[in-house]
Specification:
Helix content: 25-40%
CATH topology: TIM Barrel
Shape: globular
CATH class: Alpha Beta
Number of helices: 9
Largest sheet: 12 strands, mixed
Order of helices and strands: EHEHEHEHHEHEHEEEEEEHH
Strand order of the largest sheet: 7-8-9-6-5-4-3-2-1-10-11-12
Length: 325
């Protein structure tokens, strides 16, 4: 069965936030202090997450991504990965992580059934990583990416939020990573939302400027085969490179017309737009033994045509970590 929303978009992709907590406090994602965490009893258990995915898979869901907060801080995450990988119809199981524990756990996650990872890396410099994350956890992003590749979590993707005056001088360095390694860097336009008003429109680096900067490293071309799960990114490659570069542009070039995703929050709300306020409570229905299919269809019927970020309406979010980004 294929599920479509009210505008005819096929919805096949679920981003699952397994926790609202994180071991970083990144400038663009969370306030440094003052967050109120969800009570443990409100969080979906692994069994409940698997039950939601199991009920939605026959409705056309085929791609799942684990997010947070930081998903790897939830204990024994490989248990959930194993549950989800066993669900018929789910043929792509991915995770977005800050990478702090990935070097040690990559093989465990792959064995459990995880297919691939996106690693959030906003700098290649240890001191700058600590300033952006506002935490000093001492990890080497390049070594982490290499460990993920060695474990078979491919394609390995790098998510880099570009912030003017903060890390935009590393655009070329990130692009050079793709020359000799089969890695795929995604430069993401900053989204100054919620309580994160220290970052403003002045910090946004438009994607066209990012591509101009990358072109100083070498000629850009369209790759013959973009990496799996390329989503909303515009993907290019440096001539002769093993990997790719791409830009994700929620501000300068919105991609709402091709949106194929919904989000499950850590407390079981199905959110139909990252920057909207439309959501449906699946947790209470699940715990009451009620079927989820009617709620899923109702949710898709209310999915908005486009987000309202350009108008700075963000559905009551204080932080992106609340909905998994």
């Amino acid at each position: 069965m294929i599920s479509r929303d009210q505008f005819g978009r096929t919805i096949e992709y679920l981003r699952v936030s397994v926790t609202d907590r994180c071991n970083f406090r990144c400038l663009y994602c969370m306030p440094e202090r003052g967050m109120t965490w969800l009570p443990r009893a409100d969080l979906l258990t692994y069994e409940e997450i698997a039950a939601v995915v199991g009920e939605l898979a026959p409705l056309g869901l085929r791609r799942v991504r684990l997010t947070g907060g930081e998903p790897t801080i939830r204990p024994a995450l490989e248990t959930l990965i194993g549950m989800l990988s066993a669900i018929p119809g789910i043929d792509d199981l991915a995770m977005t992580t800050n990478g702090v524990v990935l070097g040690a756990k990559a093989g465990v996650y792959r064995t459990a059934g995880l297919h691939r990872v996106n690693v959030s890396v906003d700098s290649l410099r240890p001191d700058r990583i600590a300033r952006i994350a506002r935490r000093e956890l001492g990890f080497d992003p390049v070594a982490t990416l290499a460990a993920a590749e060695a474990a078979g979590l491919a394609p390995v993707k790098i998510n880099t939020v570009v912030m003017r005056g903060i890390n935009d001088d590393e655009i070329e360095d990130f692009a050079r990573l793709t020359l000799d390694r089969p890695w795929h860097v995604r430069f993401i336009e900053l989204m100054p939302v919620g309580a994160l008003r220290d970052l403003t429109w002045e910090h946004v680096v438009p994607s066209d400027e990012v591509l101009d900067r990358i072109s100083t490293v070498g000629a850009l071309e369209t790759p013959l085969a973009p990496p799996r799960g390329n989503g909303p990114a515009r993907v290019l490659s440096l001539l002769g490179a093993r990997g790719t570069v791409g830009v994700i542009t929620p501000l300068s070039h919105t991609f709402c017309a091709s949106c194929n995703r919904v989000r499950l929050t850590a407390d079981g709300r199905l959110r139909t737009c990252l920057f909207g306020d439309h959501e449906v409570n699946l947790r209470d229905a699940l715990r009451a033994g009620e079927p989820l299919a009617p709620l899923f269809r109702d949710a898709l019927a209310g999915k908005p045509r486009e987000h309202a970020l350009l108008e700075m309406r963000v559905g009551g979010l204080r932080a992106l970590s609340q909905v998994g980004g």
